[in-house]
Protein: etheroleic acid synthase
Amino acid sequence: MASSGSSNLPTKEVPGSYGLPVLGAQKDNLDFLHLQGEVEFFKSRVAKYNSTVFKVNFIPGNPAFPDPRGIALLDQSSFPVLLDSSKVDKTNVFTGSYKASDDFTGGYRVLSYLDTTDPKHATLKNFAFEVLKRNGRKFLPEFQSAFHAAFDAAESELSSGKNKADMAPLLNQLAFQFLAKSIVNVDPLTTKLADQGPTHLLRWIGIQFAPVAPGNSTPLPGFAEDVVIRTAPLPFLLVKADYDKLCEFFQLATEMLDMGEKEFGLSREEAVHQLLFLVGMNSWFGFSARVLPNLLYRVGTLGAEFQKRLGDEIRAAIDVSDPAGSFYGALEKMPLLKSTVLEVFRFDPPVLYQYGRPREDMVVESHDAKFVIKKGQLLGGSQALVCRDPKVFEEPDQLIPDRFVGKEELQANVFWSNGRNTKSPTADDKQCAGKNFVETIARFYLVQLFARYKTFELSEDSTLNTPFLKSFARN
Ligand code: HEM
Structure:
């Protein structure tokens, strides 16, 4: 039997209950989605069972979907077992027990659903690495130009009399423009797609992952929302027209598709679908829905004094007239920038859940006890709790931008990428293929922000995912 440790902790039964058949899952889902919310749901059960490992019904808990019964791993001792490819099987658990139909991806199984033991996993992961490597020199300049287009648009909204600029659509466009221009090597605005790339992607992703969307993802009241999006999988047909338009655009990625065919043995058709999921879902969604708005929101809420401090560090390190050209050489001179990005990733992990199934019966250790867990059991971690584990992070619920300055060792405890932050992804693990790239772009985004602005302010109705720019002071 595999073990996640070798301590003398007591062995305990996994606490908790799945409740009555069907009703138990629906009760947990109701709490999770509507009554308690994603964080309180887990926190309240940690308190109730006095344990960070317990039984729970994950979403979607409806008979039309596979069995949602699983075990939550919510501390820094038990959670890392989910990152260990030798211990857990990640077949089809990208979004837990629910797996979107392959219809959404042209009939192909995309990388995110493949376990490391699937021979195609390494092929597709190496393809992903090459996509990033081959376009390496384009990313920063393209990001820079898309960044200025987005913030020029925000400023002109403000100067035309609006009291706030809605940044979400502008960041959606920013992310799509820089990724598409770098990877597809074509400006979407000059094609039939025009500025509709993000709209098509949002619909395709929204319908595909609707059953695992957070509560209040639609304007419908809770009960109606559950009926519409969580009763059964939604059909691809609803977004076929959107997906076809996206495919047409990705067919223009000649260089990447040639590489997929010639160097990785993919059919041209499969290369299009794999590339579209990689760029449209893994990359674009991560940036547009999480990384870019979250950083803007958190740095906005940290206020003018902090912004001046971070801006001074950045402007002293880079050439403000050429951020893209001077960025890499300046990185080591910007410890506060690096720490701030990582602290925002810790505070608001962009992807909250990780799942896996033990390859064999095994022992998992929390901080307090050992648990025997059966082969095949669905295990799930919530990063929202793991990245705020009070046994590892002091004042875990405070956003402390300096937290990681001079504290290299603490960085290993941030897991946003499905791997420790001190580790880089490989073809043999399930860590995000874009982990280092994402960190680079996140840092470069703040560099751009403070090369342009001394300070900025968001309006009070801003949220993590939808920041509104209210005012700014240009450098
Ligand atoms: C922008 C923000 C991004 C975030 C927050 C993010 C996060 C993640 C996470 C948490 C996983 C693991 C999912 C799981 O539990 O299995 C993952 C997987 C993956 N990500 Fe990212 N990602 C981002 C961007 C990117 C980019 C830019 C790429 C481009 C190469 C990328 C490529 C992948 C791939 C290929 C996988 C699957 C890895 C595998 O199956 O071995 N991601 N990502």
